[in-house]
Amino acid sequence: MKPFRFVILSVLLAVFGTACRPANPLVPQPDTVSMKGYEIYSWEKEGQWFFSILVGTNREKTLDEIKSPEATLKGMEELHPVLESIPAGEFVTWVSGDGLAFPPDETIRQVDQVCRDQGLEFSLAR
Question: Listing from the earlier edge strand, what are the strands of the sheet with 121-125?
Answer without folding.
Answer: 72-74, 48-55, 38-45, 91-95, 121-125
